[in-house]
Design goal:
about 500 residues; alpha/beta; globular; binds flavin-adenine dinucleotide
């Protein structure tokens, strides 16, 4: 069968689109295969807030990415800076120094240039005032190295990607599931697919797999993440069932990274089994650093203030999953309600409120009331109230003499109204995946590149272990997707 394409990209999320754009700009004829129907397309990328992490050296750099920043915004905002060194340190620290240094180097050093490339392609960005800045003495202050989001969030990002792709002559075949790679024992030369009841095969000298991890596959979750993970809710796309990883392993690719690890957060207890595009990421509940979390036994089980939320939220979903009946209540008092993120004000929410702690205890479904009240009493007595509260930095306002401690942002729960939100574990994406080289070519188990096969996005292993700095998923997809598209086009057209 003659190849009518130079590059086949599997998937239509952020990583896949970045690969397709880069291959197209190098002159390749590109087709994208997207398993989901168009109405549900876009993968996890579409469920995001569009928050994207990259290194920048101050507001002048930000102006290159957001030329619409107004003088007023600049005058009233402390955007700070987020250096490459800080990005490196964050990746190393949160992954307990396991992250593959070569991959991290590419991710960090290319992050700003990739933002400029995305902007030049036509993706728009805006400052993330709502979630990543606090107003202090009349001035906004950004915190946690995460400053920018795609215009229109994840849905805006994916819609714009698709517009740009179509405008540049990239063909997108929706409702088309890649089922395997065409492989002659040495090189990959195409993709087998299924579209409804039609089975077919497409040929091209280069294939980019960018079709997500195995988070939506209960069997693989249980097999690799461990028992209990079949009980997690899936935050995003129901289509990321590990197909890309499986088809690459089937042609000899090497497994790499933290196969028993994943990104998982506190997610509304009554959220549906898979993500709901109408709600997006708002089932998450990420303001726990300003309150406490208790389990069915009425006990705290993590240090809610161990670090800024960007550096703890992705691992605390697992902690919730480990609790009896896989749930926790996040509890806040009137002093901090104004700090709660927008996702605490949606309609689809599992919430209890009360004028007294005793009344609240009676409303915390599934919780030992007396134990809860005792936990709050001990916690309140342990707060070091002499230290100043500051939500924009690790303020050191911790507890003394209780376990687990709360290391920052501790406030006694003493001011009505009291509010509580029930969460379970929502899995975002899996960390284990394929091994790639610095050009994103997939390596086999002899560590040799598999000719014709490239990978980007969630299914690349080796970047994240145990934890993850918020906003890095989109950046990883963008950096490695762009590289994959360019590498695939080079080898394909060069033939
Ligand atoms: C609720 C939520 C919020 C998030 N918020 C953020 C955030 O603000 N910032 C951030 O950086 N990250 C965020 N993430 C993580 C982020 O979504 C991912 O890291 C990133 O989008 C992954 O991009 P990707 O292109 O690799 O995968 P995806 O965007 O998931 O794309 C995978 C694509 O492959 C398709 N596919 C799957 N199997 C096949 C097959 N067999 N054949 C053809 N197509 C197939 C899927 O339909 C999909 O289109 C969030 C995730 C979720 C779920």
């Amino acid at each position: 069968m003659a190849a009518s394409y130079d590059v086949i990209v599997i998937g239509a999320g952020n990583a896949a689109f970045c690969a397709a754009h880069a291959a197209r700009e190098a002159g390749a004829r590109v087709v994208m295969l997207e398993r989901a129907p168009e109405a549900e397309s876009g993968g996890n990328s579409r469920f995001t807030a569009g928050a994207i992490r990259f290194a920048y050296d101050g507001v002048e750099d930000l102006k290159e990415i957001m030329p619409d920043l107004t003088d007023q915004e600049i005058a009233t905002t402390d955007f700070g800076r987020y250096t490459e060194d800080q990005f490196f340190d964050d990746m190393a620290r949160v992954t307990q120094y396991r992250a593959d240094p070569d991959l991290v180097d590419i991710l960090v050093r290319r992050s700003f240039d990739t933002m400029k490339w995305l902007r030049a392609k036509g993706i728009r960005f805006v400052p993330m005032y709502g979630r990543q800045a606090f107003k202090i003495d009349g001035r906004f202050k950004f915190w946690g190295g995460l400053t920018v989001e795609a215009w229109g969030g994840g849905p805006g990002l994916v819609a714009r990607h698709a517009e740009i792709a179509k405008a540049h002559g990239i063909e997108i075949r929706y409702g088309t599931r890649a089922t395997g790679l065409v492989h002659d024992g040495v090189e990959v030369s195409g993709v087998r697919y299924r579209r409804g009841t039609d089975l077919g095969e497409l040929r091209a000298p280069a294939v980019v797999v960018a079709c997500g991890g195995f988070e939506a596959n209960a069997e693989m979750r249980t097999r690799y993440l461990g028992p209990g993970w079949e009980l997690a809710k899936v935050r995003g796309s129901r289509f990321n069932t590990g197909d890309g990883i499986a088809m690459a392993l089937a042609v000899g690719a090497m497994a790499h990274g933290n196969w028993s690890g994943c990104h998982a957060v506190g997610w509304d207890r009554n959220a549906p089994e898979f993500g709901d595009l109408a709600v997006g990421d708002a089932f998450q509940k990420h303001s726990y650093p300003f309150g406490i979390m208790v389990n069915a036994r009425g006990e705290r089980f993590v240090d809610e203030g161990a670090d800024l939320r960007n550096y703890t939220y992705a691992k605390y979903g697992h902690e919730v999953l480990k609790q009896p009946q896989q749930f926790a209540w996040q509890v806040f008092d009137g002093k901090v309600l104004h700090l709660l993120r927008d996702e605490y004000r949606i309609r689809q929410i599992t919430k209890a409120s009360a004028a007294t702690l005793e009344e609240l205890a009676g409303k915390l479904e599934g919780v030992d009331q007396n134990a809860f009240l005792e936990t709050v009493r001990a916690y309140n007595a342990a707060v070091q109230t002499e230290v100043l509260f500051d939500p924009t930095v690790k303020d050191g306002r911790g507890t003394k003499g209780i376990a687990p401690p709360k290391s920052n942002w501790a406030n006694p729960l003493d001011t009505p109204p009291f509010e509580a939100y029930q969460v379970t574990c929502g899995i975002t994406f899996t960390f284990g995946g394929l091994r790639i080289d610095e050009g994103t070519q997939v390596l086999d188990t002899d560590l040799q590149p598999i000719p014709g096969l490239y990978a980007a996005g969630e299914l690349v292993g080796g970047l994240f272990y145990f934890n993850y700095p918020g906003g890095t998923g989109l950046m990883s997809g963008a950096v490695f997707g762009r590289l994959a598209g360019a590498s695939a086009a080079l080898v394909s057209i060069g033939r």
